[in-house]
Amino acid sequence: IQTLSPYLTARCQVSSRCSRQKEPWFSTRKPGMPTPTVALNEYMKEDFFIKIETWHKPDMGTTDNPHGLPPEEWEETEVVPIDIADRSQVDDMDYKPDEDPALFHSEKTGRGPLGPGWKKELHNSNCPYMTAYKLVTVHFRWWGLQGRVESYIHKQEKRLFTNFHRQLFCWLDRWVDLTMDDIRRMEEETQRELDQMRNEGSVRGMQAGED
Predict the structure, then answer these.
(1) Which residue numbers delimit the Phosphatidylinositol transfer protein N-terminal domain (predicted)?
(2) Spatial contact of 153 and 50, defined as CB atoms under 8 Å apart
(3) What tens digit of pLDDT does each residue of 84-121 get?
(4) What is the pLDDT of residues 138-179, one digit of tens each?
């Protein structure tokens, strides 16, 4: 996933039947280690989990096997490139013109809109860039449903990553001036809000698409 941002925040949907564990990258993660996010189900226990591991690397998506998987696991891993400016990668139900990097122009930084050759232009410029490598592991042990459910979850995670990073780019002018103290404060506020929503509120966020 190509982005122009060195700071990534995450929004997640939480239900009372799932718990999500994330290690904030800015506080406890050691340099050179991936940021893990794990969602567990209190009823299915170890028979159902979703694990997302993220590496941020200063390249254009050229690193092979960035998570260092064993050869036999890497051979079975599907690599899915995401281009945030490619309209064809966005479901019609998710498309918003004001969150389209191919249309957005940042008044504060001068970046955008992103044309068809934006990655080549970025690579040849003096602007910093990085790739967020997402390794999604899904395990759903339920006879007769395992393959279908795991495939569906992978599809929805790809959709979530696409929409989020498109939105992140188009919100550039909102966050580009934030300091690290601002980011840490927002992280704490978001955690409190999510805890309150999980305990008291209704589920909100991206709705699942069709299978």
Answers:
(1) 36-191
(2) yes
(3) 999 999 999 999 999 999 999 999 999 999 999 999 99
(4) 988 888 888 898 999 999 999 999 999 999 999 999 999 999
Residues 81 and 149 sit within 8 Å (Cβ to Cβ): no
**140: helix, coil or strand?**
strand
pTM of the predicted protein model? 0.76
Written as six digits, the tokens of 135 are 């390794």
Q: Which helix (DSSP H) or strand (DSSP E) does residue 70 occupy?
A: none
134: which strand partners? Answer: 54
Work out the number of other CB atoms within 10 angstroms of the CB of residue 60: 14
Residue 189 corresponds to which tokens in the numbers above? 């506020």
Rounded Cα distance between 156 and 136, Å, is 11
**Token output for 70:** 């064993």
| Rg of the chain on CA atoms, in Å | 18
CA 48 to chain centre: 20
